[in-house]
Amino acid sequence: MKTLLIAVIAVFLLPVVASAQFTISGSVSENTKHTSLPGASISLKNTSIGVSSDTNGAYQLKNVKAGKYVLTVSFVGYETQHKTIEVKGDQQIYFNLEPSAYLADEVIVMATRATEKSGTTYKNVSKTDIEANNFGQDLPFIINNTPGVVVTSDAGTGVGYTGIRIRGSDATRVNVTVNGIPLNDSESQGSFWVNMPDFASSVESIQIQRGVGTSTNGAGAFGGSLNIQTSAPGLEPYAEVNSTYGSFNTLKNTVKIGTGLIDNKFSFDGRLSRIQSDGYVDRGASLLKSYFLSGAYHGKTDLLRINVFSGSEKTYQSWNGVPEAKLRGDVQGINDYIERNGITGADATNLLTADNRKYNSFLYKDQNDNYWQDHYQVLYAKQFNDKFSFNGALHYTYGRGYYEEFKAGQKFADYGLENPMINGAPVLTTDLVRRRWLNNNFYGATYSFNYKASSQLNFTVGGAYNQYRGKHYGQINWSQISSNLNNSAHYYDGDGNKNDFNIYAKVAYSPVEKLNLFADLQYRRLNYDITGNDNDLLPLNIHDKLNFFNPKLGASYFINPKSNLYASFSIANKEGNRDDYVNANAGTVPHPERLYNVEAGYRIKDAQYSAGVNVYGMFYKDQLVVTGKLSDVGASIRQNVPNSSRIGVEFDGSYTLSRHFLINANAALSRNKIKDFSEFIYNYDTKKEDTYNYTNTNISFSPDAVVFGELVYKPFTSFAIALQSKYVSTQYMDNTKNEGRKLNGYWVNNVRLGYDFSFKGVKNMNVGLLVNNIFDKKYESNGYTYGSYSGGNRVTENFYFPQAGTNLLLSLNVKF
């Protein structure tokens, strides 16, 4: 590893030979009416040089060195053009684009995406960026280098169960849509990327909206939104094979095929993937499989696409984390933990002898999580004329699976079972293996109509109606001592049904050329019913009906074609998740959360650089947070806190130093506070909860600083080396800002290399290498804590999720 590091540093220190630099300028217009095309993308292929055309369709590419290039121009709804040029001096090159012979796939996501005119803070991630960072890790790790994002992995490697936070908000507050269709689970409200392995290989682009963003479908966005568009078809037939191998026996195999456009009307694309990894953590193994199939009819004014994709996962559970004493190698603390928690036998031996950072408390050989999820999408878009268009989708998702676990010393009564009699005496407990199942169906429709009344006025009306039907049940598939329940019977059955309706209207108006005003009004109604029995056998009979109004107003002002100012104000409302309802005390339901979001920023873009800076304020009413409070049956519950806030500033920029060097950087600095917070700690001496009050304390898992930098070196057009560096400051695991219950800040550095070449019969071959954590930093990116009082002393239990040290992934991608 040292040799690799020295080699990388040596390459960065190679001298760059200075040479003359020139400017390529011109304009982009459409061929039939000869009108200019503002916002067209102009770039030099295999370089970092690119720019968008201004309001008059004009462009300039500066600091271009002498040599041969392919100049590419693209614009939605028009055929992409390529021109091979030789630069010997300043040049003027003009483009007249032909309308596409078919409607472009980008129209599928236009209704829910933000633009420079919508006054929203966002980041676009292109297919090129996704491919460069896709080594088989889950999608959160592929977008880890975007502003304000923090990711974590239970197994420590980015494969298996992974998590993402944006601006400190967890996955339950990040709205995710795929082609405008909600992905978040309707009850838990999280997005589980482990159920969609290698999905990034079928993604065309991602827009990350921070804050409330624009109106979308699904649960409200309280930290951000991920708006995902699946792959558009290639114009020509293709085949692609991608393999990755790396540390911890991580192996990814992907095969992709596509027909290209058949008779300029039809296309078919497919992908088959398999990922496996032993994981960094002991027994943190994953076996993931998926496929993606898509067929489409492309008309000049309409588009019909059918997507079918599926994923299955078998993941050994590593979600308990590592106790703090074990992580620190504190032998006395480990023995105290063993005694305090009554740990005996093999479990105690495992705790004492396992690697401190790789410890996994589970030893049962089938302690697995198993889940299968199938997605069906029918997407249709119609351009009626140059002013009026429609976009709609029907969708169905079928999920089913279970996690299996060994449980020692379980009471028969806790499973509703009779105590068996042995030698005339009742037996009260047994060791057993149980499975807890989730079987769900999610289906509905989304739609949007767009009317462009004039170049100054644009209307969009859209919405969705979705239904969720979930079944929760448990089985005992082995018991050391048998009772009156067979293996196929259910010891509990619960249902969760949710109907979710929303409608929104958006208008963009430009009263003068440089000013754009934006309004976005959404109404959302949902009915949520939870019935049956919970896994503790208690009856459930919860019914809630909620109506939300979510208005958004914004403005953007273009100082010149290269830069603009924007500002927006939004209100969002969101219901609690299933646990908030189930764990609440009898007869109560959690109040919905409300967020007031203010965003303001400045963007600038030139041929050589692009940058954006924004300030934001997120002011919550009744935010749900963990307080340590227990329900009347002893379950942990989240409580509404009246006032909390996130206030911050974010920067995102890119600068081309020369033909060989490029710098990317972003930073998110924030202050995340709860005005008045009450912590509840159970006291075993008094059998009551003790209350401790705090003022102006930090929101948990909300770092004050997230900073990223990347230096890219391209000694020649087909080879690139990137040194990536990311810093995440201290995070507290509860809302008390206690130094004894925190995640230390960490600074992690990665190196990524990519080399492209081709030869007869092969369009492109790419060899990639990703070396993570090159300085072998020992850090933990996630954890949890709880406490109690006993014997007059507070007992705090902290658990952490260590991430892997230096590890690498080597990939080979071949395109035919």
From TrEMBL:
<keyword id="KW-0410">Iron transport</keyword>
<keyword id="KW-1134">Transmembrane beta strand</keyword>
<keyword id="KW-0472">Membrane</keyword>
<keyword id="KW-0798">TonB box</keyword>
<keyword id="KW-0813">Transport</keyword>
<dbReference type="Pfam" id="PF13715">
    <property type="entry name" value="CarbopepD_reg_2"/>
</dbReference>
<dbReference type="InterPro" id="IPR008969">
    <property type="entry name" value="CarboxyPept-like_regulatory"/>
</dbReference>
<dbReference type="Pfam" id="PF00593">
    <property type="entry name" value="TonB_dep_Rec_b-barrel"/>
</dbReference>
<comment type="similarity">
    <text>Belongs to the TonB-dependent receptor family.</text>
</comment>
<keyword id="KW-0732">Signal</keyword>
<dbReference type="InterPro" id="IPR012910">
    <property type="entry name" value="Plug_dom"/>
</dbReference>
<dbReference type="InterPro" id="IPR039426">
    <property type="entry name" value="TonB-dep_rcpt-like"/>
</dbReference>
<feature type="domain" description="TonB-dependent receptor-like beta-barrel">
    <location>
        <begin position="347"/>
        <end position="774"/>
    </location>
</feature>
<dbReference type="GO" id="GO:0015344">
    <property type="term" value="F:siderophore uptake transmembrane transporter activity"/>
</dbReference>
<dbReference type="GO" id="GO:0009279">
    <property type="term" value="C:cell outer membrane"/>
</dbReference>
<dbReference type="InterPro" id="IPR000531">
    <property type="entry name" value="Beta-barrel_TonB"/>
</dbReference>
<keyword id="KW-0812">Transmembrane</keyword>
<keyword id="KW-0998">Cell outer membrane</keyword>
<feature type="signal peptide">
    <location>
        <begin position="1"/>
        <end position="20"/>
    </location>
</feature>
<keyword id="KW-0406">Ion transport</keyword>
<dbReference type="Pfam" id="PF07715">
    <property type="entry name" value="Plug"/>
</dbReference>
<feature type="domain" description="TonB-dependent receptor plug">
    <location>
        <begin position="120"/>
        <end position="224"/>
    </location>
</feature>
<keyword id="KW-0675">Receptor</keyword>
<dbReference type="InterPro" id="IPR037066">
    <property type="entry name" value="Plug_dom_sf"/>
</dbReference>
<keyword id="KW-0408">Iron</keyword>
<dbReference type="InterPro" id="IPR036942">
    <property type="entry name" value="Beta-barrel_TonB_sf"/>
</dbReference>
<protein>
    <submittedName>
        <fullName>TonB-dependent receptor</fullName>
    </submittedName>
</protein>
